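Thread: (R)-mevalonate complex, take 2
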Amino acid sequence: MTLASAPAKLILCGEHAVVYQRPAIALPLGDIRAYARVADEETGRGIRFSAPDLNRTWSAADAPNETLSELARATLHAIGVAPADVHITLTADIPIASGMGSGAAIATALVRGLAAHFGRALPPADISALVYASERRFHGTPSGIDNTVVAYEQAIWFVRQAETATGAPPPVIEPIRVAAPFILVIGDTGRRSATRLPVGEVRRRWQADPAHYEDLFDQVGAIALQARAALADGAVGQLGALLNDNQRLLEQIGVSSPELEHLIAAARAAGAAGAKLSGAGWGGVMLALVDADARSRVGEALRQAGATRVLETVVGGDAGVEGVGGG
Ligand code: MEV
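Output below.
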C-alpha cells in the first residue's frame, strides 16, 4: 500500500489575467491536502477508484472517459507500467470548487501515488505536465498555474507563454523570494463555483471587447510585478494596497460576488491591510493580509460575516496553515 498527497493552493494575485499570459503569484497550502492511497488489486481487475468523500466508486474500464481514469492511464503509460491492477482511494481536506485547487491536488496526489506505488520517481515538471493535460480536458483553457504550484509545492511566479504554430512553449516558473514572513487569513464563502464557469465567461467577455479586457489584464499583471518586488524587499506594508487594487480589477473583470465582497469588506473593517478574492471567483475563498495584532480580530469578523471556514497561513515563515474555527 502506498500513500501520497498534494497540497491545496492559493493565488496571491493575478488570477484570470494569468490565462492571458500576464504574471501571477501562487502559494501552496502545505497543511491542507488531498490524498491518494494505492493498493494492489486482484489480477485482471484493472484500475478501480473509491472516493469515499463523494460516496463514489468506479472502475477505469467502466468509465474510461472519466478525467481521473484517463489521468491514471496516462500516468501508468508515462512510468511504463501497463496494464496494472490497483485500487486507488482518493480523499481531500480541501473543499471542492472553493478556489483552493482541490482538482489539481487530487490529480497530483493520484499521479504521485501511482508513481510511488510502482517505485518510480517522477520529477515535479513531469507530474505537473500530466495534471495539466488532464485539467485541459476538463476545464478548457487553464493557465497551468494550479498544477504547477501544487506539483512544485513552493511559492511561484508563473507566466504562461503564448501558443505558437508549433505548440505552447513551457511557462516561466520561478520561485518567489519572501524576505519577510506575512500572514494571510482565508475566508470561505461556502459557495461552490466550478473554475471553468467564470473562466469561460471571462473568455466570452474578452472576445466581445478585447481592448478593454487586455487593458484590465495589463493592470493586473503590473500588480503582480509590484507584489513580487514588495515580497523580495520585505516591504509587506505595500502588499495590502496591491491586493485591494487587484480585487477592484477582479470586480471589473466580473468574477467577484456579493458573498466575496461581504467577507472582503468585513476583513478590511476589522483591520486587514488588504483583501481580495482568490482563485476563479463567483464563490470560493477570499484572502486577507493581516499583522499579528489583527489576525484573530479578522478571523472573528469573517466568521461573524458568515464565512463557513476560516484558515490562517504564514507565508515565508516556518508555521503552516491553521484552522481558527468555523468548521
Ligand atoms: C484558478 O486557480 C486561476 C484562474 O486564473 C484559472 C487559471 O489560471 O487556469 C482563474
